[in-house]
Amino acid sequence: MAVKTQKAQQAPPVSPELQREMYWYMLLSRRLDERTWMLHRQGKIAFHISAIGHEAAQVGAAFAFNRGVDYAYPYYRDLAMCLVIGMTPLDFMLGVYGKEGEPSSGARQMPSHWSNKKLNIVSQSASVATQVPHAAGSAFAIKYRQKVGLQDPNDPTQPRLAIVCLGEGSTSQGEWHEGMNWAGVHQLPFICIVQNNHYAISVPFDQQSAVPNVADRAAAYGVKGVVVDGNDVLAMYHVTREAVERAYNGEGPTLIEAKTYRPVPHSSDDDDRSYRSREEVEEWKRKDPILRFQKVLTEAGLLTQADIDEMEARAKRIVDEAQKRAEETPYPPGHAALGDVYAPLES
Amino acid sequence: MVAVKNLPVREALRKALMEEMERDERVFVMGQEVGQWQGTHRVTQGFLDKFGEKRVRDTPISEMAIAGAAVGAAMAGLRPVAEIMTINFAFLAFDALINHAAKIHYMFNGQFRVPLVVRAASGWGNQATATHSHTPEPIFAHFTGLYVGCPSNAADAYGMLKASIRDENPVLFTESIALYPKPGPVPDDVDYLVPIGKGDIKREGKHVTLVAYARGVEWCLTAAKELAKEGIECEVVDVRWLRPLDTALVFESFKKTNRAVIVEESLPLYSFGSEIAAQLQEHCFDYMDAPIKRVSALDVPVPYSHDLELMCFPNAEKVIAAVKEIV
Prior knowledge:
By secondary structure, chain A is of the alpha/beta class.
């Protein structure tokens, strides 16, 4: 089998500053996410889909590519990744409230369906896995532009790869297969990150797949497959870095399967108690990626209790402020429902 | 007279499906969340315990395979009832439904039958936005070979689902999300069937015919009640099935009232409204006393923000306004 499991200690060291920054974004995402659940339970917002438990997988991956420049196709669970790429807590809060000026969609799309042209974050639909062929197409466009001389392959101000995320549940969709196959056939600068949290809403992984790893399927596409501990932010960073180098060097696509867990329901619309035991959830909570990284950093002397307290206070301030400003922002006016169905002619 | 029970639409569907599974062991259900999670909309609540995994199949998120495998199982002699969580996901199963389920009997000269029911929740609300908020029933009804059933109340949901399961042809059966909790009387008769293709007069009147299906019927009935206070008597025709379409019932009502308003939750172009209006002018031209009006969704993808979403869809007030334009 072409799959290998990566261990963080094999990789080159990561600077203390970067490690602390990773910790910060994981923490910020978590606190923002927790607040959003609360707002939903208070009836202030219509919907939330959570990144809780996935922060290490997302933050580790996001720091590995040229964020804001390379094409990113995050999925609805990628709050932490999008914060690292450059979306702000206020952007997110405007989205969950459906307020005017919300940057992803002008309050037209559901929350967490990211889209930001300035950051080269490309949107996805609510039908899962549809973003995979799109990402393959963007990677194809990059290769095309480089081949015909429209773009210098070494120009870091231009997108040099497309990275796409999805849950393991989405890999049962035909579009995942078709997108992967395309990326493989054309050996595109393409990275697919599957955040395997073991449940497609309620359906456990063993009822979704006859093989134990999604990454086992990579070989069939001529794509490199890697399984990684998705709750280990440094391991995630290293495997993604390696995949990014391969993409930049024209060495083809990589499929990264990050094993993780979602200790909360799929979305604010379901109750996970009907399909999994509380013991299982508690066991995974003990493997929480933030607590785990906090321990690593503290033991390495890279993070003190004072640092943690400062970051917690800062996160609370930022989340409070984002919520307040989103609440103060008006809803879009009626005519906002009507425009933009078709693009205007290029001027 | 058979006894009736007062049940919400969701329970009426559940009862129909359960009874059909008890009656015929070839009937089984499959789809995302139908088993362990008891059904996204709770129509299959308790089914896994009662019938076991053999007949209640949780599937991967894989609409193409859900519909495609259901077509194959039907051709091999079973009677699958496949659930697509919401109808927007049925677009992923379009090829299996339209190119195969709907055409196999004809294409292969009647050798294989596809006695298949695909159930899908339809509609909008709760800020589910553009890709989750669809009422594309007319698109499916465009294709011959497929029946399309869209009940508007509990009794119809019960009798129409049973008729669909017992039929020898593929049926797309849509369930309005907003109607699931709405209660209504349901005949306590395991063989209560609403014949495929038969519409129903939900309220009699003489001044204007309101033609609708599914949730549109509710808006029409509310509008009719209000208009009656002003002396305008509306006849509400619920076609119930978009295919076969009970045009005879629509014509009969129109010949009496000479006016029509067509109400649809879906988009206005190439729509249910377009179809009914075209057929009325073609077949009842001499009976027409006013332009035929349509009340449709706004011609935009559905936005997220709450007030914008509401703005996009028909309601009783819009129906009343349309009626007043022609009466």
